[in-house]
Amino acid sequence: MLNRELKNNLLDWRFSDALLAVGGIQPLMLEGIRQLILKSVNVTGDGSPGGSVGPNPNQEFVFVTHSLGSYLIFAALDLKSSESDTAEMQEWQKQFRSILAHTPMVYFFANQLRLLELANLDASSNMLDRLKTWSDLRRNYLAAQSGSNAAGVAPPQLLAWNDPSDLLTWNIPEVTSSSGDRMLIVENRPVRNAINWLWLFEAPASAHDNYASNKRIIRAMLKPTKYKPTKQ
User: Fold this and answer.
1) DSSP state of 163
2) pLDDT digits 0-9 by tens, 8-30
3) How far is 144 from 232, CA to CA, in rounded Å?
4) What are phi and psi of 146, to 5 degrees?
5) Which residues contact residue 71 at a Cβ distance below 8 angstroms, ignoring those fewer than 6 apart?
6) Helices 87-101 and 127-146 meet at what angle, rounded to 10?
7) Which of 2, 9, 112, 179 has its CA 20 to 30 A from that of 145?
8) CA nearest neighbour of 155 among 172, 129, 176, 171
């Protein structure tokens, strides 16, 4: 009974969404991500829907993703050949790249990058390529604003919160260019999301689900970080 319960729980609530993300339904999930991003950006100062898609001058964004979202948010950069031929998708990609250029910080809760990348070993683009694309967009934007060289501006920052008892989260590796330059400021922070029994055991489901309600994480996110973008 215990064996069946553990396997059913893992299949129904843990791996199913991950498999959907790399299967035939992925285009629908990415379309949902695209619509969500554009609607989040397209707002006026009082929070009501705006008439045109931002970002506005000097406006900046922060992404906070949980679990599958850490993979999908950057997978949205990729367009299939059939999609890239349409004017609508070309406009979307232009807008999304502009949003990424205005994004200095991304938070990952319970990222599944290493797990989901296993299904994309033969893909033309992987997650590290997408993160490098974000870095290039951000640094080129800062360089254009300050009139300096892209190599001389601070790279964007990726902060990943990882509970060791969470079976579906992994550390993010360093992201460097072919010449060894640091493309991102990557920081992996361990955290405990649930009660520990005898300081040894923690419920894996709670470890995966409770990032957004962990007060330690929320406090750290609300405090100023060490990252300081180039003055504009």
Assistant:
1) -
2) 766 655 566 666 666 677 778 88
3) 10
4) -100, -10
5) 21, 111, 112, 113, 116, 127
6) 70
7) 179
8) 176
DSSP state of 178: T
Q: Which of 169, 182, 191 has the alpha carbon at shortest distance from 65?
A: 169
Q: How far is CA 80 from CA 75, 77, 86, 224, in A?
A: 11, 10, 11, 39
Say if residues 79 and 30 touch (Cβ distance below 8 Å): no
Amino acid at site 163: D
CB-based contacts of 105: which residues, under 8 Å, 6+ apart?
A: 62, 63, 156, 157, 158, 159, 225, 227
Residues 57, 129: Cα–Cα separation, whole Å: 27
Angle between helix 87-101 and helix 26-41 axes, rounded to 10 deg: 60
Q: How far apart are CA 180 and CA 126, in angstroms?
A: 18
Domain extents in the chain: 2-43+56-222
Whole-prediction pTM? 0.79
Q: What is the dihedral of CA 43, 223, 33, 127, to 10 degrees?
A: 140
The tokens describing 15, both together, are: 């791996």
Contact 182, 155 (CB under 8 A): yes
pLDDT in tens, 89-139: 788 888 888 889 999 999 999 887 766 665 554 444 577 888 889 999 999
Cα end-to-end distance, the chain, whole Å: 61
